[in-house]
Amino acid sequence: MLVDTEVKVADECWIALAQLHKTHPEKKSFSASEILDRLRQEKVHSEVRPGVPPHIYLHNVANLPPNSAKYRMFYRLEDGTYRLLRPGDDSHPDRRGKTHPNRADLPSRYHKLLDWYEREYCARSDRSVEENDPVLQMRGVGKEIWADEGGDAFVARERAAWPGNLESKNALAGLGPRVERVWKRILQHQGEEFRTKSKRPFTYSVEGDSGLWFYLEGRRVNKRLWRGDLEKAVARCPISKLTDISDCFDPSYLFGLLMDPRISNKEW
Question: 32-42 and 9-23 are packed helices; what angle lies between their axes, rounded to 10 degrees?
């Protein structure tokens, strides 16, 4: 029987999601936090390894562009939740990795779980009507825009960024190309470890074009960094202290991100 340190991070994440599917057959998909909680409960490894979060939201996901790892174990739905890959699912053309763990790489206690996946889960390869219907897939899309604030606050913040707003216009004038360069580098390095000014390690994942999520010790910080805050901070770079961007959401993570050489790339 394998010891826990021999189980690959990708396979450990697959085990957690497979157990969720098997335990809750009434649910078609699960959030990243649900997968992470199940992984902790499963205790395949004695502790949550740093590579777990990026494998859940990026490295294992078949229908996202690969960033180093090219596994095709998970499938991301429109609402940001995940399920195991099934035959017939589309995947990014640059991904050629495995779709499930190799039996020899799993402890024997998980061989039945792999049997369940191959014989039962994959047999349900015909997607539900909702998964195939592009209109139904849109249900709930965009709700995250005001998940962390009231509708009035959201509208006020968006109005402040309108081109007609003089302060916003002056602050961001001519910044477009620079922001796009920075954004490309942020996309390139998501899932990698960064450090706050106080040297605390963190990672992040990008959410479309609207912003990104930070992860500290494997747990997602419960508020998104909106792209508007990112652009505001980029306009002020180089920054030397947290108070330079204190009006942006989480300045400690944002400072560590923007002042890292991978992101600044000698532009400041």
Answer: 100
With beta carbons less than 8 A apart as the criterion, state whether 71 and 17 touch: no
Angle between helices 227-236 and 176-189 (to 10 degrees): 110
Helix (H) / strand (E) containing 194 = strand 194-195
Three-state secondary structure call for residue 85: coil
Torsion angle of alpha carbons 67, 72, 73, 74, nearest 10°? 70
Question: Each residue's pLDDT tens digit in the chain (268 positions)?
Answer: 444 448 999 999 999 999 999 999 999 999 999 999 999 999 998 889 989 999 999 999 999 988 888 999 999 998 889 999 998 888 898 898 999 999 999 999 999 999 999 999 988 754 444 455 555 555 555 555 445 545 555 554 455 444 444 444 444 445 678 888 999 999 999 889 999 988 999 999 988 777 888 988 878 887 788 888 888 899 999 999 988 898 888 889 999 999 999 999 998 8
Contact by Cβ (8 Å): 92, 66: yes
State if pTM tops 0.70: no
Quick one: residue 214, left, alpha or beta (phi over 0 = left, psi -120 to 50 = alpha)? beta
φ, ψ of residue 80 to 5 degrees: the values are 85, 5
Query: 261 in helix, strand or coil?
Result: helix
Between the CA atoms of 155, 160, 163 and 167, what dihedral angle is there, to the nearest 10 degrees? 180
Structural domain spans, the chain:
4-137, 143-264
Residues 6+ apart with CB under 8 A from 264: 237, 238, 258
